[in-house]
Write a structure and sequence with these properties.
It comes from Halomonas colorata. InterPro entries: MoCofactor_Util/Proc, NAD(P)-bd_dom_sf, Xanthine_DH_XdhC, XdhC_CoxI, XdhC_Rossmann_dom. The chain is α/β, with parallel strands linked by helices. It is built from ten helices and eleven strands.
């Protein structure tokens, strides 16, 4: 796959990735300025020419991905010094680190409400997984970018496979399945949020069962039920679309978290020597 096809595919899938671009070169170098490659945590697409310097570029890109240091980073390579190559040239590589999807949303239940949530979420920068034990329903659903369907055959396994910081919604067709999911989910401290569809009486029944099963109040209180009541009132419109609209609106509030760092591009002092620009002409 070429680098530009990889960029399109990864951004549609919401996968974190790095675009590495050779921006300057001096002397003998494997490729010329304008060469690109794309790097993810487990794949690479296209090439900057190979050799130790390319391997070091890949390592630097993956370090930024693992540290979630999104934005622009400039890497300099002397092809004989840092890279251990014998070309004798010099290159600057610009790494553009993209976060991919802004949030992971796991929906357990592919019924009417779950399907409406998927439709309403389509334009948003979220990666969705849809889980259901009724595989015939999953097979009928139209696949969209950033949506993956999973058969719910083993609750423990499906929950264990969720990425950290996932926002989880439980709205299956079965109260027993809902309860089993809640009991597994509250044992994971690394999930962003846990929401359950249902009435106040349903949650009173569930929380009572969880207390009797020995779960702590701290774990039980992590569950948000009913979902979609973030505005402080109980909506009267209970159609699947209206419920989904409330839930997606609630998720927008939950996922609207300022980034850990503000990235506003490379500092000018880093760019001046790269492009041989005198300090007086760039501010």
């Amino acid at each position: 796959m070429t680098w530009h096809a990889a960029i399109d595919w990864l951004q549609r899938a919401g996968t974190p990735h790095v675009l590495a671009t050779q921006v300057t070169s001096a002397g003998s170098t494997p490729r010329e300025p304008g060469a690109h490659m794309v790097i993810t945590l487990d794949a690479i697409f296209d090439t900057l020419g190979g050799g130790t310097f390319e391997w070091q570029t890949i390592q630097a890109a993956r370090d930024y991905l693992q540290q979630q240091r999104y934005g622009f980073h400039l890497e300099a390579f002397s092809l004989g010094g840092r890279s251990g190559q014998c070309c004798g040239g010099f290159v600057n590589i610009l790494l553009e680190v993209f976060p991919g999807a802004e949030a992971n949303i796991a929906i357990f239940g592919a019924g009417h409400v779950g399907q409406e949530i998927v439709k309403l979420s389509a334009p948003l920068p979220w990666r969705l997984t849809l889980h259901d034990s009724r595989t015939e329903i999953l097979s009928e659903l139209h696949q969209q970018p950033r949506l993956t369907c999973h058969a719910l055959r083993d609750v423990s396994r499906n929950v264990a496979q969720l990425p950290p910081h996932t926002h989880v919604l439980i709205l299956t067709h079965s109260h027993d399945e809902d309860y089993a999911l809640i009991a597994e989910l509250i044992q994971r401290d690394d999930l962003a949020s846990i929401g359950l569809i249902g009435s106040d009486s349903k949650w009173a029944s569930f929380s009572g069962r969880l207390i009797r099963a020995g779960y702590t109040a701290e774990k039980i209180q992590r569950v948000r039920c009913p979902i979609g009541r973030h505005l402080g009132h109980k909506p009267s419109n209970k159609t699947p679309y209206a419920i989904a609209l409330s839930v997606v609106s609630e998720l927008l509030c939950l996922t609207d978290i300022p980034p850990a760092q503000e990235t506003r591009g490379l500092p000018s002092q880093a760019l001046r020597p790269v492009f041989n620009v005198p300090p007086t002409t760039m501010s």
